[in-house]
Amino acid sequence: MESVTSSHLARSTVRQLIEMGVSDFVLSPGSRNAPLSLALFEASQRGFIDLHVRIDERGAAYFALGISKASDKYVALICTSGTAAANYHPAALEAYHSGNKILFITADRPARLRNTGANQTTIQTGILSPIATVDTAEPIDCQTLLIGGPVHVNLQFDEPLLESDAEIDWLAGLKVVPRVIPVKTEGIVEVSPRSIIVIGHDCAGLSIESVRDLASKSGIPVIAEDPVSFDFAVPHAALFLSEAEIRNTLKAETIIVIGRTTLSRSINSFISQTSHVLVIDPRTETIDTRREATKLFSSIPTRIVSDVDPQWSQLWKICGESAEKAIALGWSEQLVAREIVRSIPAESALFVGSSRPVRDIEAFAQPRSGVRVFANRGLAGIDGNISTAFGISTVFERTYSILGDLTFLHDISALANTHASNHTIFVIDNNGGGIFSTLPQSGSDGFEKIFGTPHNLNVESVIKGFGYSVEKVKTLSDLKRTFHHPGLHFVVVEVPDREANARELKKIHQSVANAVRIGSNLA
To answer: Is the pTM of this model over 0.90?
Structure first.
């Protein structure tokens, strides 16, 4: 059989993806992926796709992840062979555990060159494990691949990579028919009168709208790790449930958990004391197959039915109101997170960095609506956060991000890519890993060197070095003036030192617990 030319393999793949409705392609430059690069450039010139070029494969993968999160559509990601493919792995793991729609396309040498010492050649099958690899030198039917979740295709391109055959208008007659992945439902779930719904930050990969509809119509009290998406959620539950006495008083007969609860020990302690737990999460069929619960649902129910106890609902309402009244914040990381959530305009996107910021928003933000919130909670790493936020900003007219200083510096290479959007990035600068000061290792021998990890950098100067607009703020009044800056703008937020923040957090927890005890007649 006559071998397939590299140009034909590339064009066949690109054409199929366009016909299936894939419109965003993220490309990193290279030689072995040249057939794909040329095909993509031609398709972009003719208006069939949006082509994003990112020089660093690791950042490119997170950039694609951001587009996928924001659009809930497949994004194709293309690189050359060797270490380029390996740099996709962190984002691939995040996409796998979050169920994001990314098609990882790695270019490769022909299989006959593997294990021969050939340049830039390694074993790329399984390189993005646990995502399975389709390894081929022949055109494939992409319809069988894009069925939900990340996919890895390893395309073997043989010499010559560039040919003069100039196939007759390979894009002629192209018809786009977007693939629709059906959403399954599971019928009615009946629960006891004193039940609670706990919504994990990623909503189990289900749409925010479907989860909002299910939870709001149930009439059951709701705890949301992301209070910005659920304005009817009980505020500050992560704070007042840290007290064992309050957890015991609020012990539920049934808890419905949607997704994973990855942020607060207090929420997970609250869940663990209840014997009847229902979990709604499609990943229990494919990824989290050993997850335990009274009952597992792999798709969203059409309805939750409960004869809700009005006294139970009122008790939760009082606890949330009491906690809100007790929160008195001075200039701090917590106040900054709370103010950002309160002040950003409706119809915006908000990306929240891992570690402290995502926890501060869960605990201190007042529930609201009108803002789409995103975070990398699949594996909750601090890597690639700027790149992910940049990807999200391509989908929204206005985007805001809040990142810790170490999270920001971890992905600083993202600033080497020119990026134009209305995007304000707040960098919380406490000179190191502030979250560790709130964890059990605080105060251990060598803490500052191995956990605190002070960077001792002038973050404002680092950003200016890349040529971007930046300002530093040290007060609430200064912060309030930063929300409407056009274009890509950075705000370095200087906050009290990490140890002072940890001490203040302890005081706030105690103050909230006392207020909730009094409000709920536990004192």
So the answer is: yes
